[in-house]
Specification:
The complex is a heterodimer of chains A (424) and B (311). With 424 residues, chain A is α/β, with parallel strands linked by helices. Chain A folds into two domains: 88 residues, Urease, subunit C, domain 1 (Roll); 306 residues, Metal-dependent hydrolases (TIM Barrel, Alpha-Beta Barrel). Chain A is built from 14 helices and 18 strands. Chain B has two domains: 149 residues, Aspartate/ornithine carbamoyltransferase (Rossmann fold), CATH 3.40.50; 149 residues, Rossmann fold, CATH 3.40.50. In chain B, 42% of the residues lie in helices and 14% in strands. In chain B, the strands form two sheets. Chain B has a five-stranded parallel beta sheet. Chain B has a four-stranded parallel beta sheet with strand order 2-1-3-4, sandwiched between helices. In chain B, strand 3, helix 6 and strand 4 form a beta-alpha-beta unit. In chain B, helix 2 crosses helix 13, helix 3 crosses helix 13 and helix 7 crosses helix 8. Chain B starts with a helix and ends with a helix. Classes of the chains: A alpha/beta (424), B alpha/beta (311).
Chain lengths: 424, 311
C-alpha cells in the first residue's frame, strides 16, 4: 500500500532538508521525497501549508499498564501519543508490578503492536522491583526488546549498586536513565525550594537534590564507560554538570520536559496539584538555563514524562496528591512556543523531538530519507486550539495547561506507513 | 486567587489592605458595642483536622455570640487513615446544611482545595505551614490597641519561622501596613528567601539585634511536630541563643509589648517572667481573637445586614 504526502514543507532536522515537496511511502518505508515527485491520486494526503517531519519520539512516558489501568492503558496512552504526533514512546517500568523482566517487556511490545497506534519501546528496571537492591534481569530484558534501563520515579540511591548496573549494562550498550534525586536532600518536599515554596508553606525540593545526584552519576558513568541519560533535567546546576561532562567526552545525554521549559514555581496557583510533578517546576533562572541548554544541544531531547493520574488523586491536598502531569498531547505547541519566542530554531526544536532522541536510545526513525521507516508527523504550525483535557485521548486530565490557547496542531501521525491519527 | 478570596477568608496574602482595615474597624466597633445576633438560624461547621484549644473555642464562641449554631467536627488521625479524602468528608458535612466552614488542617493549602469545591464561605483557621489569617488579624488588632498604629513600628518575630503559619500571616499583614518586620531564628529555621516575601522584612540569625529597639516582640513556639530532621542540636541550645528572657527583653523599647500566639512553652522560647510581665499582652490576644472572628463571620455571612446596622 502506498501513501503520498503531497505539497508539504518537508522538514528533516537531521539532514537539514527544508523544502516544499512530496513524500512517498511504500509499505512501511519512505520510498522517496522531494519537490514534485508524486502525482495526485488515491492514497494522497494534501499537506499544503503543513510541516511534514519525522515522527516524534518520546524517551519518557508512563503508560500505567499493568496495574493502574484506571490512570492510563497502553491503548489510551499510545493513542494520546499518536494524537500528539509521537510515533514512538519509551515506557518507564514503574508499573505494578515493575517491568523488571523479559515477560513484562515482551508484553508491552506485543500489546502495542495489537493496538497499532504509537510504537512502544520498553525501558526495563535497573533493579528488581526498582527497590534499588539487586540488579534486574538486564540481559533478558535486552533480548526481549528493552531499549534502556531506569528505576524512574526513584533514583538508585545506593551508588555502588548503580555502579554495578552501569558496568553490566555497558556490555549491552544499554543507556542507564537516572531519575536524579538525592532522597535525603529532597525528603518530604513537594515543590521547588525557594521563595514560592516559603510563601505557600510547602516543603521544598532543593535544586541541589537533583544536581548532587547528577554529579555522582556522571562520575560513575565516566569511570564505567557507561551510557548515562539524565531524565527530566530541571536545574541550572545540572545543566552545568552535564555541559562539563560532555566537554570532557563523558557519554552522557539529557532530556527536558515541556513543562519545565514553560513554567516556573511561581506559576503554582491555589495549590492546584496539576502543577505538582517531580522534579518540580523550578525557579525562573533554572527555566532559562534549560531553554538555553536545549538550544545549544547540552540537553539532547524533549521528553514529556507523561504521568497520568486520576482526578480524585489530584483533587487532594497538594502535599498528598501524587507527582506528575500528562504531556503527550501538548508537547508540540509548547516547544513551538519557544520557537515563536525566538529561543529555539525550528530545526533544533524538531531535532530534539525526532533525530536526537532516536540517537540517544539508538532507536529506528527520526529521519526523513529513502529507506527509513515511514514514521512521519504532519502538523499545522500556526493552528491554534484550546487545551481541554476532557477531549484528549489520555484517560487522565492532569495537565497544568488546561484552558490555554496553544499554537501548533498535529494533523496526521503515520506509523510504519499507516495513518494512526488524523485531526478531526 | 481573586475570585475565591472575596467569598472566603483563606489567607492574608490575598487580602487587600482596605479589606483588612474594615475587619479591624468592625472588631473595634464590636468591642465598644456588642454585636446583634445577625447569624441567628445559621449553622457553622467547625472542622478541625489538628488539635487546637484556643482557636477552635474562640471561633465557636464568636459564632454563638452572633447567634449561629456551631457543629464541631474534630477529625482524628484515624478517619484519615480510613482513607476518606478531604473533599469527600467535606461534601458529606456540607450536605448537612451548613452555611460556612471553618477549617484547620495540617496540610498547607487544604482550605483552598475545599473552597474550590463548595458553595459556602470557607474560613482558614490555620493550614499547615501556610497561613493563620485570623491570628494575624487579632495580632494587628492587639498592636493597634497598644500602639495606635502599625506603620513604622519595629516588630520582632522570634522562633521557628520556617514552620510557622502565624509568622507568614503576620509578616504579610504587618509589611502591608508599613511595619519593619524583623524575623529571627536559627538559620535552619529562617531561610534567607523570607526577606523577599514582603517589603521591610529583615532576617536575623542573632536575637539581640532583632530585639534592639523593638516596639513589639512576637514569640513563636518551636514546632517539634513539624520537624523530621535536625534543625538545631538541642532544646537547651535553642534556649541559650533564642529564648526571650527578661534580660534580653531589656534590649527592646521600654514600652514594647510581648505577644505569643500559643500554645506557649515557658522556659523554652519565652521566659516565665516575660510571659507574666506587665509588657505581656498574651491573654489580651485571646480576648481579641473572639472580636476578630466575630467580625470575620459577620462580614462573610451577613455583609449586607452588617453594613445596614453600622450605617
Amino acid at each position: 500500500m502506498n501513501l503520498i504526502l503531497q505539497g508539504g514543507r518537508l522538514f528533516d532536522p537531521a539532514s537539514g532538508r527544508d523544502e516544499t515537496g512530496d513524500l512517498v511511502i511504500q509499505e512501511d518505508k519512505i520510498r522517496d521525497l522531494g519537490p514534485g515527485i508524486a502525482a495526485a491520486g488515491p492514497g494522497v494526503l494534501d499537506c499544503r501549508g503543513l510541516i511534514v517531519c519525522p515522527g516524534f519520539i518520546d524517551l519518557h512516558v508512563h503508560l500505567r499498564e499493568p496495574g493502574q489501568e484506571y490512570k492510563e492503558t497502553i491503548e489510551s496512552g499510545t493513542r494520546a501519543a499518536a494524537a500528539g504526533g509521537f510515533t514512538a514512546v519509551c515506557a518507564m517500568p514503574n508499573t505494578h508490578p515493575v517491568n523488571d523482566g523479559a515477560g513484562a517487556t515482551a508484553y508491552l511490545i506485543q500489546r502495542a503492536k495489537e493496538i497499532g497506534a504509537a510504537r512502544v519501546y520498553p525501558v526495563g528496571a535497573i533493579t528488581q522491583g526498582s527497590r534499588g537492591e539487586a540488579l534486574a534481569a538486564i540481559g533478558a530484558m535486552r533480548r526481549a526488546g528493552a531499549v534502556a534501563l531506569s528505576d524512574d520515579g526513584r533514583p538508585v540511591m545506593n551508588g555502588q549498586i548503580l555502579r554495578r548496573a552501569m558496568e553490566y549494562a555497558a556490555r549491552f550498550g544499554l543507556p542507564i536513565v537516572e531519575h536524579a534525586e538525592d532522597l535525603n536532600l529532597s525528603a518530604g518536599g513537594v515543590m521547588h525550594e525557594g521563595a514560592a515554596a516559603l510563601r505557600l508553606g510547602l516543603r521544598g525540593i532543593s535544586a541541589e537534590s537533583e544536581a548532587a545526584m547528577v554529579a555522582r552519576d556522571i562520575l560513575l558513568a565516566e569511570r564505567c564507560g557507561a551510557r548515562l541519560h539524565i531524565a527530566h533535567l530541571s536545574t541550572a546546576a545540572s545543566v552545568r554538570l552535564v555541559a562539563a561532562a560532555k566537554a570532557r567526552g563523558v557519554p552522557v545525554t539529557a532530556e527536558v520536559t515541556p513543562h519545565h521549559l514553560t513554567l516556573t514555581d511561581e506559576d503554582i496557583r491555589d495549590y492546584d496539584a496539576n502543577f505538582k510533578m517531580n522534579p518540580p517546576l523550578r525557579a525562573a533562572a533554572d527555566r532559562e538555563a534549560v531553554i538555553a541548554a536545549l538550544a545549544d544541544g547540552t540537553i539532547d531531547a524533549v521528553a514529556t514524562d507523561h504521568a497520568p493520574h486520576a482526578q480524585h488523586e489530584k483533587a487532594q491536598e497538594f502535599s498528598r496528591a501524587p507527582f506528575g502531569v500528562i504531556g503527550l498531547e501538548t508537547a508540540l505547541p509548547l516547544v513551538l512556543r519557544l520557537v515563536a519566542a525566538g529561543r529555539l530554531t525550528l530545526r533544533r526544536a524538531l531535532d530534539a523531538l525526532t533525530a536526537r532522541p532516536a540517537q540517544v536510545f539508538n532507536l529506528p526513525g527520526g529521519r526523513l530519507e529513502p529507506g527509513a521507516v515511514a514514521d512521519v508527523t504532519v502538523f499545522a504550525p500556526q493552528e491554534t486550539w484550546v487545551c481541554d483535557p476532557a477531549r484528549g485521548f489520555s484517560k487522565s486530565r492532569n495537565t497544568p495547561f488546561a484552558g490555554q490557547t496553544l499554537a501548533g496542531r498535529v494533523r496526521h501521525t503515520i506509523v510504519a506507513g499507516r495513518v494512526v491519527y488524523s485531526a478531526g | 486567587m481573586g475570585e475565591s478570596q472575596s467569598r472566603h477568608l483563606l489567607g492574608i496574602a490575598g487580602l487587600e489592605r482596605p479589606a483588612i482595615q474594615a475587619l479591624l474597624d468592625r472588631a473595634a466597633a464590636m468591642q465598644r458595642r456588642p454585636p446583634e445576633k445577625l447569624l441567628a438560624g445559621r449553622r457553622v461547621l467547625v472542622l478541625f483536622y489538628e488539635p487546637s484549644t484556643r482557636t477552635r473555642t474562640s471561633f465557636e464562641v464568636a459564632a454563638r455570640r452572633l447567634g449561629a449554631e456551631t457543629v464541631s467536627v474534630t477529625a482524628s488521625a484515624s478517619s484519615i487513615e480510613k482513607g476518606e479524602s478531604l473533599l469527600d468528608t467535606v461534601y458529606t458535612l456540607r450536605a448537612m446544611a451548613v452555611d460556612a466552614i471553618i477549617m484547620r488542617h495540617g496540610e498547607s493549602g487544604a482550605p483552598f482545595l475545599v473552597a474550590r469545591h463548595v458553595d459556602v464561605p470557607v474560613i482558614n483557621a490555620g493550614d499547615g505551614m501556610h497561613e493563620h489569617p485570623t491570628q494575624a488579624l487579632l495580632d494587628a488588632f492587639t498592636i493597634l490597641r497598644h500602639k495606635g498604629r502599625i506603620a513604622g513600628l519595629n516588630v520582632a518575630i522570634v522562633g521557628d519561622i520556617l514552620h510557622s503559619r502565624v509568622a507568614r500571616s503576620n509578616l504579610w499583614l504587618l509589611s502591608r501596613f508599613g511595619a519593619r518586620v524583623r524575623l529571627c531564628g536559627p538559620p535552619s529555621l529562617l531561610p534567607a528567601e523570607f526577606a523577599a516575601l514582603g517589603a521591610g522584612i529583615e532576617c536575623h540569625h542573632q536575637l539581640e539585634p532583632a530585639l534592639d529597639g523593638a516596639d513589639v516582640v512576637m514569640v513563636l513556639r518551636i514546632q517539634m511536630e513539624r520537624m523530621r530532621e535536625a534543625f538545631f542540636p538541642s532544646e537547651a541550645e535553642y534556649v541559650h541563643y533564642y529564648s526571650v528572657t527578661a534580660e534580653r527583653l531589656r534590649l527592646a523599647r521600654p514600652d514594647a509589648i510581648v505577644m505569643h500566639p500559643g500554645p506557649m512553652i515557658r522556659g523554652v522560647e519565652i521566659g516565665a517572667e516575660v510571659a507574666d510581665s506587665p509588657q505581656s499582652v498574651i491573654r489580651e490576644q485571646v480576648e481579641n481573637g473572639v472580636l476578630i472572628r466575630m467580625a470575620v463571620l459577620e462580614q462573610l455571612l451577613a455583609p449586607a445586614e452588617a453594613a445596614e446596622k453600622s450605617a
